[in-house]
Amino acid sequence: MTRVLYPGSFDPITKGHMNIIEQANGLFDEVVVACLHNPLKKSGLFTIQERVAMIQEIYQSVDSIRVITGWGASVDIAALYECKAIIRGLRDSRDYDYERQLQRFNKDMSTQQINAVCFFPDSEYQFISSSAVKEVLGLGKDISRYVDDVVAKKLYLKVGGRNNGC
Ligand code: ADP
Questions:
Q1: How confident is the model over 57-74, as a mean pLDDT?
Q2: Are 1 and 83 in contact (CB under 8 A)?
Q3: Could you tell me if the CB of 154 is within 6 A of ligand 1?
Q4: Is the CB of residue 91 below 6 angstroms from any atom belonging to ligand 1?
Q5: Which pLDDT score is estimated for 43?
Q6: Residue 166: which pLDDT band, with cuts at 50, 70 and 90?
Q7: Cβ of residue 6 lying under 6 Å from some atom of ligand 1
Q8: Can you tell me which atom of ligand 1 is nearest the CA of 13?
Q9: Residue owning the nearest CA to atom 25 of ligand 1
Q10: In terms of C-beta distances under 8 Å and separation of at least 24 residues, what long-range contacts does 116-119 make, across chains too?
């Protein structure tokens, strides 16, 4: 049984994140999506519980995708859930540089061998980020192509349906 961890803030989950989850789900037995509290980031638009609930609703019929939450280092959470690797998505060279550095720190922080496995999103998802989606929505524009319907509905409720036809 090969289980992997996909940690992130997912505020909210986008179709870019989903593309990575689905690629990993085709390769590994179980993907554990971890919505992590990041003390260095502002509280975010959605609470951790709201983020988890959206991901759970999207993947409710997929037994091999599990959603959890937690505090602390991804390597510790990976060890706790007996994950063999940490999944990450690489959109561009900035993600690459960041992940390379993170991998180095993760190796230092953990006594266990937990590798990073990076996936490239399909090209239509390459430019999507949670923060860009929130900015576009804040301008009153349609975000439905960037996020699942479950998330779009929650975003419109949270930010307001101004000019969004909702
Ligand atoms: P963000 O960088 O959007 O704040 P997260 O902290 O939730 O996102 O990111 C978790 C992981 O998902 C990171 O490895 C990040 O590079 C990756 N990721 C985010 N958006 C995309 C995307 N559109 N395509 C591929 N990977 C992505």
A1: 96
A2: no
A3: no
A4: yes
A5: 79
A6: very low
A7: no
A8: 7
A9: 89
A10: 116/85, 116/86, 116/87, 116/88, 117/4, 117/24, 117/85, 117/86, 117/87, 117/88, 118/87, 118/88, 118/89, 118/90, 119/20, 119/23, 119/24, 119/87, 119/88, 119/89, 119/90
Q: What is the pLDDT of residue 164?
A: 47
Residue 64, token pair as written in the block? 């091999």
Distance 125 CA to ligand 1 centre (A): 10
What distance in Å separates the CA atoms of residue 9 and residue 146, rounded to the nearest whole number?
17
Tokens of 59: 């993947």
Report the mean per-residue pLDDT for the chain. Answer: 93
Q: Which amino acid is at 83?
A: C
Catalytic hit among 74, 88, 130, 134: 130
